[in-house]
UniProtKB/TrEMBL annotation:
<dbReference type="Pfam" id="PF06733">
    <property type="entry name" value="DEAD_2"/>
</dbReference>
<dbReference type="GO" id="GO:0005524">
    <property type="term" value="F:ATP binding"/>
</dbReference>
<dbReference type="InterPro" id="IPR045028">
    <property type="entry name" value="DinG/Rad3-like"/>
</dbReference>
<dbReference type="GO" id="GO:1990918">
    <property type="term" value="P:double-strand break repair involved in meiotic recombination"/>
</dbReference>
<keyword id="KW-0067">ATP-binding</keyword>
<dbReference type="GO" id="GO:0003677">
    <property type="term" value="F:DNA binding"/>
</dbReference>
<dbReference type="InterPro" id="IPR027417">
    <property type="entry name" value="P-loop_NTPase"/>
</dbReference>
<keyword id="KW-0547">Nucleotide-binding</keyword>
<feature type="region of interest" description="Disordered">
    <location>
        <begin position="1"/>
        <end position="26"/>
    </location>
</feature>
<protein>
    <submittedName>
        <fullName>FANCJ protein</fullName>
    </submittedName>
</protein>
<dbReference type="InterPro" id="IPR006554">
    <property type="entry name" value="Helicase-like_DEXD_c2"/>
</dbReference>
<keyword id="KW-0378">Hydrolase</keyword>
<dbReference type="GO" id="GO:0016818">
    <property type="term" value="F:hydrolase activity, acting on acid anhydrides, in phosphorus-containing anhydrides"/>
</dbReference>
<dbReference type="GO" id="GO:0006289">
    <property type="term" value="P:nucleotide-excision repair"/>
</dbReference>
<dbReference type="InterPro" id="IPR014013">
    <property type="entry name" value="Helic_SF1/SF2_ATP-bd_DinG/Rad3"/>
</dbReference>
<dbReference type="GO" id="GO:0005634">
    <property type="term" value="C:nucleus"/>
</dbReference>
<feature type="domain" description="Helicase ATP-binding">
    <location>
        <begin position="1"/>
        <end position="231"/>
    </location>
</feature>
Amino acid sequence: GPCTECSCSSGKEPDKDPSHTKKKENGDRLCVPKIFFGTRTHKQITQISRELKRTAYSCVPMTILSSRDYTCIHPVVSNSSNRNEMCVELLEGKHGKSCSYYHGVHKLSEHHALQPAPRVYQAWDIEDLVSLGRKLRACPYFAARELMVGADIVFCPYNYLLDPQIRDSMDIKLKDQVVILDEAHNIEDCARESVSYGVTEGQLRAAREELELMVTNSIRQEHHEPLRAVCCSLI
């Protein structure tokens, strides 16, 4: 049946506590788990959020995690081939500039259209977030991450859940949470990809030359000798 805590059924203000902890009678803290919904492509997330909109749960707090390729709106960074690096450089202020969109992120994450409220709020997709971000001149990428704190359901591509490096960088904690994987037969390929690394013959030859230089100059020979042997055998 409908959850009595849900703001959409009670007509009350949504729970403002971002960690969604509720007290149990014996003093323990009971955590309501988040649902992490992993899909193969970003396109599928759009389809699923559209379906969510049609259900009785369209007013549940949610967010969609996706890459800067889909959510960066900075005029220079979004047209660059290495958006991640450029974004980090801007935020670190390496060239004396910063990103005004990033500094306006709260305008988007706190916007009433994204705050669950009865009869007002609707499930949204990446395009909705990006167009609202453009309107408010605020960063959709970081707004989506901020919204994860209070979200009951988090949509994201598989690799955000499977790849430990992405999990860490996105601050995703899966312990005691609910994980749903859509079209789970694709998981094997995705898992293989996240622990695979492509290398060219040219890179191998360059590495072998550098290692040879180390060995002939007796620099940590015991470490570099076996690495050189691996490069040789692969070539």
